[in-house]
Amino acid sequence: MPAAMTQEKEARFDAGRYQSAGVDIDAGQAFVRAIAPLVRSTARPGANPDLAGFAGFFDLAEAGFKDPVLVAATDGVGTKLQLTARCGRHKVAGIDLVAMCVNDLLVHGAQPLFFLDYFASNKLDPACAREVIEGIVEGCRQAGCALIGGETAEMPEHYRPGEYDLAGFALGALERGRRLPRENIEPGDVVLGLASSGAHANGFTLIRQVMRQNGLFLADPAPFASGETMASALLVPTRIYVPSLLPLFEQDMVKALAHITGGGLIENVPRVLPAGVIARINAASWRAPPLFRWLHEAGQITPEEMLRVFNCGIGMMVIVDAASSDAVVRQLEEQGETVYRLGELAPGAGPARVELAGTGA
């Protein structure tokens, strides 16, 4: 038998053995071909996504950068993924994956450029995986970044049937000298809050615990949202703030941002403030949405813990100069954001911290 035919036969045999072990190479290749048009739809200046290669490319000069500094972020969806998987809301998981990464890039003043994803499962379910990718593509479109590559892995001995996991990686850039937070942060600066779209992708371990304590399942009516199930009320995509905030960067109207994720306002805001500054936030300046009020009462969670675990309705904190605060609020509202005036910065001793006044969560 000719050597070429022998090699071909062995390749087929090996592929069959791999498939019988739980990994279907052909199905994976077919999936990549199927999602290629979706991926190409995220093209932007600097990137024309093509899944045929071994790596993705981005041309910073084509994107208009002169002296760029690169900024990278990685994140996942946490245990919210368990809920999206159970009720088939896979697209939400994909949007969340992008949102958690690109919102972190914003905190440093970076424009998101491209995104990479990692999708691992017990066995590739093309319909489920496609919905996840559709969500990732939607998130990339909202953020204006290209999906230039990813990895799909079948690991039957690592995940249980029906399980999958996600990881996301985003790269952004900014011109040298434009990094946030700015060095001119000072007492008197105004603290603004941008409304969240829900719990985003944080605190779902505690949310699931409160559900168990109250005997609630995803298909049950939500006690805090009339006409909705727990699934529809909880599994709302994380808000992506890129379109609203990038124009403010270009006008140099933002001094600092804090993405309100795990740790809440209490722990995330001080991360972007200099020592000797206190962020005085009036907890009565916004009203926590019904979801958070329900968690507070049904879970018997203290206001302090609520503000450390959840965003409580504030997804992004913005620090601006007092003189430009009205203009910033107006522009953000024109972009569709709900904006709250949370308080101001004040002088203090020692490390930066948040000082809360008002009724809390």
List its traits.
alpha+beta; 60s Ribosomal Protein L30, Chain: A; 4-stranded mixed sheet; 10 strands; disordered N terminus
Largest sheet: 6 strands, mixed
Shape: globular
Q: From the 3D coordinates, which CATH architecture of the largest domain would you assign?
A: 2-Layer Sandwich
Going by helix content, strand content and strand pairing, the class is alpha+beta
Mean residue pLDDT: 91
Instruction: Quickly count the domains.
Output: 2
Order of helices and strands: HHEHHEHEEEHHHEHEHHEHEE
Give the strand order, joined by hyphens, for the main sheet. 6-8-5-9-7-10
- Uncertain runs are 1-13
Query: How many DSSP helices?
Result: 12
Range of helix content: 25-40%
| Computed CA radius of gyration, to the nearest angstrom | 23 Å
The CATH class of the largest domain is identified as Alpha Beta
**Beta-strand fraction estimate:** 15-25%
Terminal Cα span: 76 Å
Give the name of the CATH superfamily of the largest domain.
PurM-like, N-terminal domain
Q: What does this molecule look like?
A:
The chain is an alpha+beta fold and 361 residues long. The chain has two domains: 3-175, 60s Ribosomal Protein L30, Chain: A (2-Layer Sandwich), CATH 3.30.1330.10; 190-357, PurM-like C-terminal domain (Phosphoribosyl-aminoimidazole Synthetase, Chain A, domain 2, Alpha-Beta Complex), CATH 3.90.650. It contains twelve helices and ten strands. The strands form two sheets. The chain has a six-stranded mixed beta sheet. A four-stranded mixed beta sheet has the order 1-4-2-3, covered by helices on one side. Helix 2 (25-40) packs parallel to helix 5 (126-143), helix 3 runs antiparallel to helix 4 and helix 4 packs parallel to helix 5 (126-143). The N and C termini lie far apart (76 Å).
